[in-house]
Design brief:
about 475 residues; Nucleotidyltransferase, domain 5; Gyrase A, domain 2; 3 domains; five-stranded mixed sheet; 13 helices; 17 strands
Length: about 475
């Protein structure tokens, strides 16, 4: 059901900027009024949300924005996410199971997180959901910043997920959202989300204004996409059919067409406002192309039921019941109800006795089935101890693999991992620069700390290969 508001503002939060887009609603029609890219010196989320909120308010006024309600979009690098299967259950039971599973897979106190989940694909007889979480402190700061800007926050969701929601729901695909020095990937199958990831390497080449993008850049992007997609579990019928690129950088469309070829997927460029169902602004000079992504937030705000997740109105947040103003009247009514129930209980006591006897007899007849069910439950519990456990030593191997270059040139011959998660790695490389580049890449991984090179020397006298050894500490839960 559309919201009854004339104008809605979309605010896509980035590291040092806010992308803003205003959508005007007239009945069932929506049109993009204006967009802007608002840079800030202070990093987001702000330490002082009041001060930055006032600066945001002044910037919006200078650019002519007049909407009073806003949908906040957050980058994927602030998220924790994991796809998990759940058996069929009602909303309240499912919410309890999701909270328990979040404590297991996010390895942090859920009181410090705001949790929500997006519907996923079918998994056996149950359903797979995409669990998402954001630090509660970050959510509170962003809400305070928007309030200080004189706006009413309607919702808060990942920007790239709302961009993916604008794709055709019946086509499984990968969405690649490109921004300067960052990129995000969303895996979506038949309208249901499987993963949302921040790609840790800077994907936009330094000469992104050059129409002829380097072929090695396209191959690096495809390798990183393939690696991310391979590490994301999906149902067998959810293999991607296309790679959709939402370019908010302004790269040459023809140069982007080959990005999906190494994956064996056709590449499609997003149609922008046409995918969002928005009419373009009447004044083209008001359209800032990088900020068009924020229009997806404003468009989704007009139809709140389409939001995959909402950290301001989570499905898992406990709703407090409002206090009644007529406590005495309710107490009197409750007392009368108890009295009537006591009278009815006294009159039906004999009938209840007979019913209890009948139930006891039925329970005795069901005893063989109960014993069979208990045996089955014990066998399932034994099997789950083998199937549900994931070795914690696989996580540092995954982080190290993602840090090494996709094109090769360096390899590991020995890896020693201690119980305190300190690792010693040795191997060989084609030259010294390859080792130094790999060392810099390892240091960018949040989960790998105390990275130190132990030695770097020639491997032999007949070739240019070098031998190296390094050490690092794995921080459990430090990865995205």
């Amino acid at each position: 059901m559309p919201l009854r508001r004339r104008r809605i503002l979309g605010l896509a939060i980035e590291e040092h900027a806010v992308l803003a887009a205003e959508v005007s609603l007239s009945g069932s029609k929506a049109s993009l009024t204006r967009t802007a890219e608002l840079p800030f010196r202070e990093a987001l989320p702000p330490e002082d949300p009041q001060q930055l909120g006032q600066a945001l308010r002044d910037s919006l006024r200078r650019h002519g924005f007049s909407a009073k309600s806003a949908v906040i979009g957050v980058p994927a690098r602030w998220l924790l996410s994991a796809a998990r299967p759940f058996p069929p259950a009602g909303p309240s039971v499912l919410a309890s199971m999701v909270r328990i599973e979040a404590e297991r897979c996010f390895a942090t106190d859920t009181d410090d997180l705001v949790l929500d989940y997006a519907p996923g694909s079918a998994a056996n007889q149950g359903r797979e959901f995409l669990l998402t979480a954001m630090p509660r402190r970050t959510v509170d700061r962003l809400r305070a910043m928007v309030l200080a800007a004189g706006l009413k926050p309607l919702a808060m969701a990942p920007t790239s997920m709302l961009l993916a929601a604008a794709m055709k729901p019946d086509v499984p695909g990968l969405l690649l959202f490109l921004r300067p020095r960052q990129a995000e990937i969303v895996i979506r199958s038949r309208g249901r989300f499987s993963a949302v990831r921040h790609l840790s390497l800077p994907l936009t080449p330094p000469d992104h204004g050059d129409p002829a993008l380097p072929a090695d850049w396209r191959r690096a992007v495809a390798a990183l996409l393939a690696r991310t997609a391979a590490l994301t579990p999906r149902a067998e019928d959810a293999e991607p059919d296309a790679l959709v690129i939402w370019d908010a950088v302004g790269l040459d469309p023809e140069a982007l067409q080959g990005v999906g070829e190494p994956l064996g997927l056709p590449t499609q460029l997003s149609a922008g406002l046409q995918n969002l169902g928005l009419a373009p602004p009447s004044h083209p000079e008001r359209l800032a192309q990088p900020a068009v992504a924020a229009a997806a937030l404003a468009a989704a705000g007009a139809r709140r039921s389409d939001l995959p997740v909402d950290f301001l109105h989570s499905r898992l947040e406990v709703r407090r019941r409002p206090r009644s103003r007529r406590r005495i009247a309710w107490a009197a009514a409750a007392a009368i109800a108890v009295l009537l129930a006591a009278i009815a209980l006294s009159a039906q006591w004999r009938a209840d006795q007979q019913q209890v006897l009948a139930l006891q007899q039925r329970l005795e007849s069901m005893q063989p089935d109960i014993e069979a069910a208990q045996g089955l439950a014990e066998r399932v519990a034994l099997a789950r101890r083998w199937a549900d456990r994931r070795s914690r030593f696989l996580n540092p191997l995954k982080e190290l693999t993602l840090a090494f270059p996709a094109e090769g040139g360096i390899w590991v011959s020995n890896l020693a991992l201690q119980d305190d998660m300190r690792a010693v790695v040795s191997g060989k490389a084609s030259d010294e620069q390859t080792v130094l580049d790999a060392l810099d890449s390892i240091r960018t991984r949040p989960a790998l700390a105390s990275v130190r090179l132990l030695y770097l020397r020639e491997a032999g006298v007949t070739n240019r290969e070098v031998a190296f050894s390094l050490t690092f500490d794995y921080l459990d839960g430090g990865g995205g």
